[in-house]
Specification:
globular, single chain, alpha/beta, Trna Endonuclease, Chain: A, domain 1
């Protein structure tokens, strides 16, 4: 699962130390999944209170071990990924367990992308149901960094970006287009596109302008940091059709017919996290807007509202 390094203008754990948190997340996620899978295997063998170590042998938990496990499951505001409380999920298939685990991690990723131990930002609930965000996070590798709708500064001027994905080997700037299975996007001129639906047709500014603006921001940062990395562009209408031709090798036009192959191409990039990738993410984080408030003040406000 990819890492949400920056979400909108929210405060992010990764802003504290981008060189530590990505590898920490990968390690903790792997540990939690391995432990959950071991418990599921133990449940299937008829030893629900057993822990399955790496050697595959089953041992009964001592009272102390069970106490530690209960403490381990408590959700806190710390940097650790909380151990999910799945209830009766162990009675389901391993695929079901994995799906629940991924959903927990998706929510956890939004938590990391909107809070630190001392600061917190107010998250729009729409992000939890955002299908584009969910698809990217749940399908891309752990080593991919996602900047989702950040506000970046270029020469002190704020620039709203759509989606920036920093992988170990390249950078993608993505312009998503909303629609359904009846929506067809066409190009009416160099400056404008059309969105044709069942009942109406809309004309809007070509998404290439947004893509070019995003690429300019990214390439400016790369130049300032003295980093050379390819920057690719994509218009993504994951639920609709694009009846537009592209003559640029840098720009991909992705619709519902090609979204799976496009995602698979990204997924196939299984390279580990690179220092250059971290440096780029750090440069971006140093140039984005952050709006947050004290966690203590936010908690007190929540308590006051509940008491009222």
């Amino acid at each position: 699962m990819a890492q949400i390094v920056k979400l909108s203008h929210y405060v992010s754990r990764y802003e504290i130390d981008i060189y530590r948190y990505p590898s920490r997340y990968v390690r903790l996620k792997r540990e939690r999944w391995n432990r959950l899978k071991q418990e599921w295997n133990a449940k299937q063998t008829g030893f629900p209170d057993a822990a399955v170590p790496q050697d595959g042998r089953i041992h009964r938990d001592s009272r102390l071990q069970r106490t530690v496990k209960r403490l381990f499951r408590r959700k806190t505001a710390s940097d650790d990924i909380p151990y999910p409380d799945f209830g009766h999920v162990h009675s389901r298939s391993l695929e079901d367990v994995k799906a629940v685990f991924q959903e927990e991690l998706f929510h956890f990723q939004i938590g990391w992308a909107s809070s630190t131990v001392s600061e917190v930002s107010r998250v729009k609930q729409a992000y939890y149901q955002d299908e584009m965000l969910r698809r990217l996070v749940k399908n891309l590798p752990d080593t991919f960094f996602i900047f989702y709708e950040p506000v970046c500064f270029m020469k002190k001027a704020p620039v709203e970006l759509d989606i920036v994905i920093v992988s170990p080997s390249d950078i993608w700037v993505i312009k998503p287009l909303a629609g359904d299975g009846d929506t067809i996007y066409t190009k009416s001129s160099e400056r404008y596109w059309e969105k044709r639906g069942k009942e109406r047709t809309e004309t809007f500014l070509s998404p290439m302008y947004d893509l070019n603006r995003m690429r300019t921001v990214i390439e400016h940062l790369l130049e300032e940091e003295g980093i050379s990395l390819p920057v690719y562009q994509a218009v993504v209408a994951k639920d609709s059709f694009l009846d537009v031709s592209s003559h640029s090798t840098r720009t991909k036009l992705i619709d519902k017919r090609t979204i799976d192959s496009f995602m698979q191409k990204l997924i196939n990039n299984q390279a580990p996290i690179k220092h250059t990738q971290l440096k780029i993410a750090d440069a971006l984080l140093c140039n984005v807007q952050t709006v947050s408030e004290s966690r203590i003040e936010a908690d007190l406000e929540t308590i006051e509202k509940r008491d009222d």
